Design the sequence.
């Protein structure tokens, strides 16, 4: 439904919804937020709900934006647009193919390797499908209005599938058992609280999952049989994740996450409920992933404890304080995900090498490491090993093709594609392949960035530029397929630069710490240095530049407009932070301490003053550039009040703001219909203010 308010120049649009993993540190939410949507790799492993069982979220009142009164819509309107012009039909036509791209993520592989569970979107939201042959038909299993986040085969029951979902982007994930014979789902969790992770024992007899049901803050471990609600197994304080279950079912590897630079491996004895720390005391390190060996007596751990980068180690669990044996020291890049083959003879892992993934195997007897030849040049998003066959499911995407599911045959050392996701009929070979550049920042440090050159710019003319900034802040921009970036570079004649400013992951723990505490604005200065670099390029027009980013990237957008407003024509802020103090006070309780480690504790008077000083809301009078703000009303990470206050303040300073509020979304736009509206508005906004062709 689209209705124009005839008494003003504003357009009010109300869109009703149609009826309708394992990589623990895959921190790509920022990119999901900022435009790749269903084509992005997955985030942490979890599961979903069914439309009939989930009440529709209560409509959230439209934000008070200051200045003129915000238009009100029909109470059932799920998206309210305020201050935005009408979207021309011609723009929708130009964008149509890019809006119809989709991706497929391998969530689970059958024990014998004969079929995959994937999540992909055919209608408005991602759902669970089964694929039983390479490039075979995708057989849809769930038909929910809400997106499904993850899924798994029941190891001992082919008639059942476990899956996970939330409602309205709340991130309060629930677990469901789908009976494939009847098509009906049974709720296994409480329907209210957050259940972010799950893990089956190898025999499938037990299901472990995590929950904050006890106090809505700390993450505990629960256990059940996967057919009925489970019971609390152990209480924990802080943020805890399930990593692996020993093959005899006796023990579970847990990860205690304190911060991106401080996380510890523990072993949980299921029978005695004893939790024993594996990571040595007194050593601050990031232990990011771990799996048991076949005997359960040793573990393979990805950790940065012995070097600048995350390496692979072998650890004796009976004596974890003894020397950790380094296995991948010759590879000066981060190890990402790690899985062990069914026979225990092959460890499969990926490394992040300047943003590009390299898929490798290690023979657990000889410890010889070799790369898998013929792997596409892109990003490995997840690895899932079959329980009874020498195969591993791999989710992988490239800059010109969305994430798809592959299967790695360990005997033949061959990677075979199992899904080929549609890209709206676009010619993938005609997409823009980014080049990796490095530019010098204010202190002489080299900053990496992916550069998408604009196509079709007339000879003698310079292209306008969009600087696309990731969130996190401890995330990393990787070369995966992002439809809006491809459209800007391929169709709109707008170059896109995607930097990994200081504080980004993937370049060593020293680089990761460069924006901590009172050095927060040094990363903003990196954007200023990138604008300097742009001005030196003969093919780029530095007078027509914009910034674009989501979550922490939204803060970077606002901060860039504060510091470099005379050099930036426009900014697109998606679910961004406007005020660090109110953000920390209002973010979900289970996240607050985690974010305080990164940004500082707002309850400390000196730090509170500093955080207030660097918050864009405190210097809103400096924002002179055009601004587009978009947010989800149910965002538990960065509350929608952050958008409300920056929109109100900028308008009170005398400037217009485009504002989009999605009432049925959280930290980003996961529904296709909402993402389409946002993408159309963002492209229109950028083309208008950059005077693009």
Sequence:
């Amino acid at each position: 439904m689209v209705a124009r308010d005839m008494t003003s120049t504003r357009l009010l649009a109300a869109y009703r919804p149609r009826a309708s993993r394992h990589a623990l540190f895959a921190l790509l939410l920022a990119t999901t937020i900022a435009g790749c949507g269903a084509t992005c790799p997955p985030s942490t492993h979890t599961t979903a709900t069914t439309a009939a069982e989930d009440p529709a979220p209560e409509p959230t009142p439209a934000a008070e934006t200051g200045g003129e009164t915000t238009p009100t819509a029909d109470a059932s309107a799920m998206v309210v647009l305020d201050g935005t012009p009408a979207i021309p039909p011609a723009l929708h036509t130009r964008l149509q193919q890019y809006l119809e791209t989709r991706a497929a993520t391998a969530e689970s592989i059958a024990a014998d390797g004969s079929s995959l569970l994937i999540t992909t979107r055919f209608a408005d939201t991602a759902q669970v499908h089964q694929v039983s042959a390479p490039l075979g038909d995708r057989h849809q299993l769930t038909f929910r209005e809400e997106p499904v986040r993850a899924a798994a085969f029941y190891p001992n029951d082919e008639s059942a599938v476990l899956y996970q979902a939330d409602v309205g982007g709340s991130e309060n994930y629930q677990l469901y058992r789908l009976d494939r014979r009847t098509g009906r789902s049974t709720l296994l969790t409480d329907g209210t609280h957050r259940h972010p992770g799950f893990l089956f024992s190898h025999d499938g007899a037990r299901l472990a999952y995590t929950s904050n049901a006890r106090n809505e803050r700390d993450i505990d471990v629960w256990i059940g049989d996967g057919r009925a609600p489970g019971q609390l197994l152990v209480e924990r304080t802080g943020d805890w994740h399930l990593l692996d279950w020993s093959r005899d079912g006796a023990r579970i590897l847990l990860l205690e996450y304190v911060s991106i630079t401080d996380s510890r491996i523990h072993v949980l004895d299921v029978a005695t409920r004893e939790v024993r720390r594996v990571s040595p005391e007194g050593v601050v390190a990031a232990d990011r992933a771990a799996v048991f060996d076949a005997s359960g007596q040793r573990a393979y751990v990805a950790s940065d404890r012995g070097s600048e980068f995350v390496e692979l180690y072998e650890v004796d669990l009976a004596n974890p304080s003894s020397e950790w044996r380094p296995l991948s020291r010759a590879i000066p890049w981060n190890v990402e995900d790690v899985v062990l083959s069914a026979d225990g003879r092959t460890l499969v892992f990926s490394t992040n090498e300047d943003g590009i993934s390299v898929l490798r195997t290690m023979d657990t007897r000889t410890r010889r490491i070799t790369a898998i030849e013929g792997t596409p040049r892109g990003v490995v998003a997840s690895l899932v090993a079959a329980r009874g066959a020498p195969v591993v499911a791999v989710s992988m995407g490239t800059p010109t093709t969305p994430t798809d599911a592959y299967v790695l045959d360990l005997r033949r050392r061959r990677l075979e594609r199992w899904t080929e996701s549609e890209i709206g009929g676009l010619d993938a070979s005609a997409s823009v392949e980014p080049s990796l550049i490095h530019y010098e920042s204010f202190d002489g440090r080299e900053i990496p960035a992916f550069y998408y050159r604009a196509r079709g710019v007339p000879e003698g003319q310079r292209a306008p530029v969009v600087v696309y900034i990731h969130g996190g802040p401890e995330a990393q921009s990787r070369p995966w397929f992002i439809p809006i970036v491809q459209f800007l570079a391929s169709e709109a004649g707008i170059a896109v630069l995607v930097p990994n400013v200081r504080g980004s992951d993937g370049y060593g723990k020293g680089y990761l710490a460069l924006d901590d505490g009172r050095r927060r604005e040094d990363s903003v200065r990196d954007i200023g240095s990138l604008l300097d670099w742009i001005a030196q390029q003969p093919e780029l027009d530095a007078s027509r530049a914009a910034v674009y980013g989501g979550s922490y990237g939204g803060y970077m957008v606002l901060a860039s407009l504060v510091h470099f407003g005379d050099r930036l024509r426009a900014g697109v802020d998606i679910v961004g932070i406007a005020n660090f103090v109110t953000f920390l006070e209002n973010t979900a309780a289970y996240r607050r301490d985690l974010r305080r480690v990164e940004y500082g504790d707002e309850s400390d008077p000196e730090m509170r003053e500093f955080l207030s000083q660097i918050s864009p809301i405190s210097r809103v009078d400096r924002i002179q550039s055009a601004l587009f703000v978009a947010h989800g009303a149910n965002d538990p990470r960065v509350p929608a009040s952050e958008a409300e206050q920056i929109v109100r303040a900028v308008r009170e300073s005398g400037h217009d703001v485009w504002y989009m509020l999605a009432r049925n979304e959280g930290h980003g736009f996961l529904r296709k219909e909402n993402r389409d509206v946002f993408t159309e508005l963002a492209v229109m906004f950028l083309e208008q203010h950059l005077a693009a062709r």
Observations:
- The longest helix spans residues 672-690.
- The chain has eleven helices and 39 strands.
- The domain at 2-98+430-579+615-690 is CATH 3.40.50.1820 (Rossmann fold).
